[in-house]
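W.,

You were right to be curious about this one. When I first looked at the sequence I had no strong expectations either way, so I just let the prediction run and decided to look at it fresh. Below is the sequence, 301 residues in total, followed by the output.
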Amino acid sequence: MDKLRLLFSVFFICVFASCSEDNDHVKETPRSVTIVLSKQNSSFSYRNFIENIDPTITINWINAYTTPLSQLIVDLENADGILLTGGVDIHPGLYGNAFDTIRCGTIDIKRDEIETTLLDYALESGTPCLGVCRGLQFMNVYMGGSLHPHLPDTLSDIHRGKDGNSTEHEIYVTQKLGALDIKPGNKSATVSHHHQGISRLADNLEAWAIAPDGLTEAIRHSDTTSHPFFIGVQWHPERSDPSGSLATHIGEGFLKAVLDEIRVRKNTDTLKTNPHVSDSNSSQVIMIDETVSEKIDIQMH
């Protein structure tokens, strides 16, 4: 009986030491991540924005717009994050106002279809997802909300310069977010360049920042357990001054969520492959590896 107890002591010491090593490995910061962009812009501003957060991390960027659908499905399975970028208008038929096309600018139906695929996957898998400008708008439309087709006609003209270029205005943070280090009451100057915006907010989304005219400027999924990072902003953090805006907080929050996604996946894989012990009545089965097991009958006294 003493030899048997000694055998168990040695075995459990080895198991716990192995688990400790695995856990330490999981906690390490990943050096490479994969992020899917809905559409790459010519200036690479979105890529530069995220890469500058931590230049030591290599990011594998996938441009969904130029990737065949069959390959995109495969790429999404390996994606650690999804970024919906800015761009042209969403077809108003998607939010029940097809006749509003006359008040829209350029419309890209292909992009609407691609971003539908991306959000299908993001919501099913819980993959971190950041939407910027059009990205926020598409999140809202996808979830059942609607848009102002042309803000100067319905709300105000503060969101885009009179010459059609970018402008700046303040946004006001209305509530605290666990996913971002941003406090309620924070006022920040932001770069804005859009003529559409959220009209009816989708039921499963919450607003966490507004513009001076009351337009919703930032959203998140209301189920923060299943979707800890499903966040959209109407302004352009990738073009805003990081020293005087919320840009850095948004970029850091997204990259942290992406790294956390990798750690969770690795931890899950580790649990699947670790040796384990299972009890069955008076017998104990010790799994040494996938092919070897030793059954030892133990009489309890």
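Here's what jumped out at me. The mean pLDDT is 84. And, maybe more interesting for your project: The chain has one domain: 33-152+166-268.

Coffee later to discuss?

I.
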